[in-house]
Amino acid sequence: MSDVEEAAALLFREATYLDKGEWDAWVAMYHRDAVFWLPAWRDEYEMTDDPQTQVSLIYHDRRYGLEERISRIESRKSITALPLPRTLHQIGNVELIAGKDGMMQSESAFAVHVFDPRTAREHTRYGRYEHSFVRESDAWLISRKKITLINDRVPTVLDFYSI
Length: 163
Fold this sequence. Notes:
Elements: H1 3-20, H2 23-28, E1 30-39, E2 56-60, H3 63-74, E3 86-100, E4 103-116, E5 121-136, E6 139-149
Parallel strand pairs: 1-6
Antiparallel strand pairs: 1-2, 3-4, 4-5, 5-6
């Protein structure tokens, strides 16, 4: 399998875990020091570029932040996630940007179709993913995921599973 095929397979697996709500399998794909970042748009042409000093829609600088969010969802104490929206992630235009010595970087386009059973409304979110992967033992782990959300006027809850 080529590096770009391997990167695509990882992206498709991540999407499937999100759509099926297999949170433990999904978060296990992330390195313990992984960054998960959804920057905000500063204006119509430029995004924020420093999550430490500028607004981000979502930012976790360790896998622990994702695990904590999953814990709140599973505890059913997160009212915004009752019931959870149904999602379908579609990923395409996967490109390998770099790959060497146990590291890979890819870029791809995505569309996430979201159905909210509370309101019976549906909408689509779309944009670009940037993934960095690191090889640990026999597995590739996500060490960084940056999400550029093109349509950032979000009509409902925005969370890790819906982008």
